[in-house]
Design a protein that fits this description.
It comes from Plasmodiophora brassicae. The chain is an alpha/beta fold and about 230 residues long. About 55% of the residues lie in helices and about 15% in strands. The protein folds into two domains: about 5-105, Glutaredoxin, CATH 3.40.30.10; about 125-225, Glutaredoxin (3-Layer(aba) Sandwich), CATH 3.40.30. It contains ten helices and eight strands. The strands form two sheets. It has a four-stranded mixed beta sheet. Strands 6-5-7-8 form a four-stranded mixed beta sheet, sandwiched between helices.
Length: about 230
């Protein structure tokens, strides 16, 4: 039986995340690795491993207007290929997109997806804490957070900032960070995975001339870990 557009639509609607792939494709492997990292379950359709795979890809191209793989669908919507999804992820928009589409699902599936997105966002933040030199957990409404970010700006120290009132599932992110740091308030500043403290802690270190040397120490630790 030759695959049709209707067949593709049925597959796309069969799971919240559906990926059309080929087993030998490095870009497909890269996208699958990202989904695995984010702990997002997906239905994977390997076009080179099924009967009429070529016909299915032809029908798929009519749905997505894209002729290559991988192709990722979320909540029935075509998101893009490997580079598209990675760009969305790097800009913090991929999980937001997933969260915005959960309204199309029934309640039990929505709860599962929301839980997975919460886990994925938290894991992504924790991974960034372990990977980047300076990470700040902040809130746009918090005056102490603004004071800490102002100090970093004055010192010309770029930081990755997560605003817990803006990121998807911010409460879950904050809970995960609290477990890591043992601190229940914001802001929280990390230097290459090491919890330094909040606004007053960082200002106290800076006033004693110890903050910049600590930044440099952690920068060297980060450089040595990459070798």
């Amino acid at each position: 039986m030759v695959a049709s557009v209707d067949d593709i639509q049925q597959i796309v609607q069969s799971a919240f995340i559906v990926m059309f792939s080929k087993t030998y494709c490095p870009y497909c492997s890269k996208l699958k690795a990202l989904l695995q990292k984010l702990q997002l379950d997906a239905r994977i359709v390997e076009l080179d491993a099924i009967e009429d795979g070529r016909a299915m890809q032809n029908a798929l191209s009519q749905v997505s207007q894209c002729n290559t793989v991988p192709q990722l669908f979320v909540g029935g919507k075509f998101v893009g290929g490997c580079d598209d999804v990675h760009r969305l992820h790097d800009s913090g928009k991929f999980l937001v997109l997933g969260a915005s589409l959960t309204h199309t699902l029934d309640r039990s599936v929505t709860e599962t997806v929301t839980r997975l997105l919460s886990m994925a966002t938290s894991n992504d933040v924790l991974s960034t804490i372990d990977r980047d030199l300076i990470v700040v957990i902040s809130g746009t409404y918090c005056p102490y957070c603004k004071k800490l970010k102002s100090l970093l700006s004055t010192l010309n120290l770029p930081a990755k900032v997560f605003e817990v009132d803006k990121v998807p599932n911010g409460d879950a992110v904050l809970d995960a960070v609290k477990q890591r740091s043992g601190c229940s308030t914001i802001p929280q500043l990390f230097l290459f995975g090491k919890f330094v403290g909040g606004c007053d802690d960082v200002h106290a270190l800076h006033s004693k001339g110890r903050f910049l040397p600590l930044v440099e120490e952690r920068r060297k630790a980060m450089a040595s870990s990459s070798h």
